[in-house]
User: What shape does this take?
Amino acid sequence: MSTQTWSPTENQFDNGTKNSKKKMNIISSDHDSKLHAQIGNPLIAVLFSFFHAIRLMYLAKYTQWKSTVAAYHGATVNFEQLIAQLSSTMIEDFDIRIQVLFKRGTAQY
Assistant: This one.
């Protein structure tokens, strides 16, 4: 039976969070709070200072990403509502206005 050894040069969270910004946010938040709880230890205080600065940068980018996703979602919903409106109530008005310019059955119509 082989034993695996931990390499301090490898990011142990990389595979678990590679495709999930949400998971990385949860893990980094937890890690940050646990380091902060032990800040009385001078060695942990150094680790916390280093990690917390990186966490704040990540959190700013994560928040920006979430806002962008929400904006795209809102635009998609708005577009779908406009298409639904055109398909139901406005299509007849649209068709009548087109027929003023182009006869039904022609290529232009």
